[in-house]
Amino acid sequence: MNIEDLKAFKKVVELQSFTRAATELNFVQSNVTAKIKRLEDHYRTQLLYRDKKSVTPTPDGKVLLTYANQILDRINEAEQTLLGGTSAPFHFGSIETIAATVLPNVLSAFRQEKPDVQLQISTNATAQLLQQIRHRKIEGAFLSGEVNDPSLSALHLYNETLVVITAKGYGNPLESHQPHNIIVFVEGCFYRGYCENWLDYHQVQVNNYITLNTLDGILGCVQAELGFAMLPKSVLKEGYHNDFDVYELSSPFEQVPIYFVHREDVMQTPVFNQFMTTLHNYF
After folding, report:
1. pTM here?
2. Domain HTH lysR-type spans what residues (predicted)?
């Protein structure tokens, strides 16, 4: 049994004739007859009633016709996706801070070139996104920090400036000898690890880590004076000085590189190549 057998079966049922089906499929009639016989042998049942005036499906033939229609429809979809190059869903990831800042403008630029592409975007911590890339769950991801993995390729996009953010009047954490609550993303987040290194470097005493999954949640906790956070300066909206005090970081902590990371052997579909071209042009 093969796909051509199912196509022949569907056409015979549609036209109720071996002769007309053979003509439309550009086959000799014996070829069509052989395809139907192959299907009947495979399924060990009669699929068609062969009357003098017409050909109609048996009960088992009707069942096969339902599945044949589904199979052929899916094959057509696959051909349109793979050969057309514009309909395939493009699934990639991003850390929360990039998704909230530069990603919307990047997607807008990409949409101008590929308006019909279905986009699927997953936000997660750096470590989790790297695992998804390695296991081919996503095509790539926007990440912060260096990636030391020979199986992965990283396109440098820009450098991010990190700052310490506190509520108004909280004070500079480096000038306080009291232990602090640190408001951070979940384990596996690059910025969390970066902040922990900064705390150790400056010997800042930690009372507790408050873990949240969202950028808005972290900013809300900082504003409520529950502790301080380290975040990219770009996440702060215009007029942020009304709500927060912001402290610049000194060397070696002030700059963090941002990359789009993907597998070295990623399948370079037309959609993927256009996305990479958009990144090169935008940054």
Report:
1. 0.71
2. 1-58
